[in-house]
TrEMBL record:
Subcellular location: Membrane
Residues of the V-type proton ATPase subunit S1/VOA1 transmembrane domain: 361-399
Lineage, uppermost ranks: Eukaryota, Metazoa, Chordata, Craniata, Vertebrata
Family indicated by similarity: Belongs to the vacuolar ATPase subunit S1 family.
GO BP field: regulation of cellular pH
Segments passing through the bilayer: 366-386
Listed Gene3D superfamilies: 2.40.160.110
The name this protein goes by in its record: VAS1 ATPase
GO cellular component: bounding membrane of organelle; cytoplasmic vesicle membrane; endomembrane system; proton-transporting V-type ATPase complex
Source organism of the structure: Psilopogon haemacephalus
């Protein structure tokens, strides 16, 4: 029994899983997704009417089931290592999403880890809906195959990180609505990526979602490999007091791409107008397979040299506050989506981000629209008042008992 807002810790998760690990039929299937939240089941099943992607009824038909609404990121992230250490499992990893038959040797305990298709958020919710529907079919197909073969098994369906940001629920009274209350984002679910020279950190980089799309068809989610497993090569990064380059090298991020390098080029310059140094993210470069070179110019991502730069949304779309503008033809083949972007390439202290200067200015498009609309309405009101003040009454009036009043045309 879990009360509202309770987050299952790593210790609680191990206690919950003990009955599964100690039972006689030790066949455990772990479906591991890159990101998932309990709210996804409600959101995607109700937002699209009859297009409910969750057709698999294994949870309802199973003799025993448990749903944990919220699990600590650290606990779910290291679930695989915990399971491997908990017993003499025969580990089998499957990444082929088209697998239709699973070979299980029932003479020994089996731990089967199935890496599910990555969900790409920020581009198209319909694509995400289709990906979830395909994942649901895979889970249903494999569980049905094991049931037909009479193999007892247990299933865990979880993810490395949450797909949705929930409000803080540290204490019960914070769950109630309060006057002028604002929902705060969770703290960083994983540490930022850092680049060191010697013993000093010179670059810090963080993003909640780091996703690319090539040729409008190939989705590349780099969030986990960059920040969670940190399976990325940053040895080509360069640091100096004037220019800094963050180089991220990936080996076979997806099928069809053998290597991918992403560079963030920053500069530190003195501006006489403000009489201080400013750090600026000048451009972003994408190099595919060492041949295809794409370059983007960056808008409005700058901060005082002592601060870090933060933007809620960075990408190639015109709707994002900080936009990546293609500067060559190859760049037009790429779509970039980065959420909760934060970077610091100068004056890093104690391996922590400095105060963040947000890229969103004070005069946002909504504020400008409100100001222009208010000015137009005030102009109409002023014109109306001016016209009313120009109205005058007649200086003479006709007396019906006297002779008719004659008014010359000159008057």
């Amino acid at each position: 029994a879990l009360h509202e807002g309770h987050i299952v810790s790593a210790q609680e998760l191990t206690e919950i899983l003990q009955p599964v690990l100690t039972q006689n039929s030790r066949n455990l299937i772990l479906f591991l997704q890159d990101m998932l939240s309990i709210d996804d089941f409600t959101y995607f099943s109700e937002s699209y009417g009859n297009k409910n992607p969750f057709q698999n009824e294994s949870l309802q038909s199973s003799p025993s089931s448990l749903v944990l609404p919220a699990v600590d990121c650290e606990a779910s992230r290291y679930l695989l290592s915990f399971l491997q250490k908990s017993g003499g499992w025969k580990l089998t990893k499957i990444t082929n999403l088209n697998v239709s038959h699973l070979e299980v040797n029932t003479s020994k305990p089996n731990l089967v880890v199935i890496q599910l298709q990555q969900l790409v958020s920020g581009f198209n919710e319909v694509s995400t809906l289709e990906a979830i529907a395909e994942i649901d079919k895979i889970i249903g197909r494999l569980t049905m195959d094991l049931q037909e073969r009479g193999i007892p098994f247990s299933v865990i369906y979880t993810a490395v990180r949450p797909s949705r940001i929930s409000r803080r629920t540290d204490v019960v009274w914070e769950l109630r609505r309060q006057l002028m209350a604002t929902e705060e984002e969770d703290s960083l679910s994983y540490p930022p990526l850092n680049v060191t020279t010697g013993n000093d950190t010179c670059i810090l980089f963080y993003a909640r979602n780091f996703t690319l799309k090539a040729n409008n068809s190939v989705f590349i989610d780099l969030t986990n490999v960059t920040f969670v497993s940190q399976d990325v090569d940053v040895s080509s990064s360069e640091c100096s007091d004037v220019n800094t380059t963050l180089s991220l090298r990936y080996t076979e991020p997806v099928n069809g791409i053998s290597s991918l390098e992403i560079r963030f080029l920053m500069s530190n310059q003195f501006y006489e107008g403000s009489a201080r140094n400013w750090s600026t993210l000048d451009s972003v470069e994408i190099i595919q397979d060492g041949e295809k070179f794409a370059k983007f110019y960056v808008s409005v991502i700058s901060a005082p040299a002592e601060y870090s730069s933060h933007c809620q949304l960075v990408g190639t779309s015109n709707l994002y506050p900080a936009r990546l503008i293609p500067s060559n033809d190859e760049a037009k083949n790429w779509d970039v989506f980065i959420s909760t972007f934060q970077i610091q390439g100068f004056n890093v202290e104690n391996n922590q981000f400095s105060y963040a200067s947000d890229c969103t200015g004070f005069f946002t498009p909504a504020i400008w629209m409100g100001l222009v609309t208010s000015i137009v309405l005030l102009w109409i009101l002023a014109y109306g008042i001016h016209m009313i003040m120009q109205l005058t009454t007649n200086s003479r009036f006709d007396d019906p008992k006297g002779p008719a009043l004659s008014v010359p045309l000159t008057e």
